[in-house]
Amino acid sequence: MQTPVHLVIGAGPGLGAGIARRFAREGYFAVLTTRHQEQADDLAAQLTAGGCAAAGFAIDLLDAADVARAVTAVGERYGRIDVLHFNPSAWREKDPLQLTAAELLEDVMLGVGALLPAVQAARPFQRAGSRVLVTGSAAADKPWHRAASLGVQKAAVRNLVTSLDATLAPEGIRAVAVQINGLLAAQGPFSPPPIAEAMWRAVTRPDESWTPHVSYDG
């Protein structure tokens, strides 16, 4: 396949789909993954109806083997993964006195741990110039105590991106976490279109000015 592939891990109808549309404007083929195949197909159909080339795949982010399976299936079908976009996070409204250790570990698996098998499975289908893009959040620095696991996820995934970037850089592959310092909204500076533009700018920077973290402040 000559068309570059943008794989979204943990896509949704808002930000995930919006970022996929932005990349599609640059000629990327969008692959959208969700928990259920029907949901993924619906998202892909919405993009296709808007003139984007897209496909959907099911993925279970709480199962490392299934994450590897799904990413490998995408790579084998299209022959390449140019941008691996890791977008999920687990929302659980529990403070530290309510949150159990098992719940915290489950949320961290979805919002952080699943990135490892995704990148490992994508690596054979990447080449110099490929990118790993992660959706970050201000919760990494300013967690809300009533949803304690979210801040842990976002701080941890940002840290992991630093290690991923250092590991992949010698192969010409770079990783970046774009930290969104505001609440997502349907309109305005924290709506999908301007955030998607910031994501696009983050992955198209030259290596000479690369950093593994970018802040989006609206």
From TrEMBL:
Is Coiled coil found in the keyword set? Answer: no
List, alphabetically, the Pfam families matched.
adh_short
Q: Name one GO molecular function term.
A: oxidoreductase activity
What the entry lists under InterPro entries is as follows:
NAD(P)-bd_dom_sf, SDR_fam
**Highest taxon listed in the record's lineage:** Bacteria
Which key words tag this protein in UniProt? Oxidoreductase
Task: Name the family the entry cites.
Answer: Belongs to the short-chain dehydrogenases/reductases (SDR) family.
Mind telling me what this protein is named? SDR family oxidoreductase
